[in-house]
Design goal:
Order of helices and strands: HHHHEEEEE
Structural class: alpha+beta
Shape: elongated
Radius of gyration: 27 Å
Largest sheet: 5 strands, mixed, barrel
Strand order of the largest sheet: 1-2-3-5-4
């Protein structure tokens, strides 16, 4: 077996490992890694047939999975990993406030718009002023609205 396919597979595995462990997202090292792995397996297929190429592909997967698990386990324990991984938390003592839990109970409730909703504004729902948004429609003041969704502190309404 010529060393070129093994070099391509090894480089592809290394780049894929870097993509999984160090680089966020998918692309910078992941796309070249997949291309190198496919080219390496393709060369093995052309030179030695489908059976040998299948063995190389399976071996590559068997190497990538434990290597990635090991890297994910080791990354937070290294100096480089600690500089990349965010370890901060948002506490109420520092001023962080989670969205109020009572907003989630508003789904299905009705009220009326206090201000024009273009698409954001204020509505009076269950006697409380609530900042709301629509799904893009403009709603005039004093129009009956219904809460259709709550996502965190975002209350979505539609006109009735």
């Amino acid at each position: 077996m010529p060393p070129l396919p093994l070099f391509l597979l090894g480089l592809g595995v290394l780049l894929l490992f870097i993509e999984i462990i160090l680089l966020p997202g998918f692309g910078a090292a992941g796309v070249p890694a997949i291309i190198l792995i496919c080219v390496g397996i393709g060369i093995v297929w052309v030179e030695n047939g489908w059976e040998t190429a299948s063995l190389y592909a399976g071996g590559t997967v068997v190497i990538i999975i434990p290597l990635s698990v090991l890297g994910l386990w080791l990354a937070p324990r290294t100096k480089l990993g600690r500089t990349v991984i965010l370890k901060t938390a948002q506490n109420s003592e520092e001023g962080f406030q989670a969205p109020p839990q009572e907003l989630a109970t508003l789904v299905g409730h009705s009220g009326r718009s206090v201000t024009p909703l273009r698409p954001a504004g204020v509505a009076l729902i269950d006697g409380k002023r609530v900042d709301v948004v629509t799904n893009g429609e403009f709603i005039q003041p004093e129009t009956e609205v219904e809460v259709i969704d709550v996502e965190g502190s975002r209350v979505v309404v539609r006109s009735q």
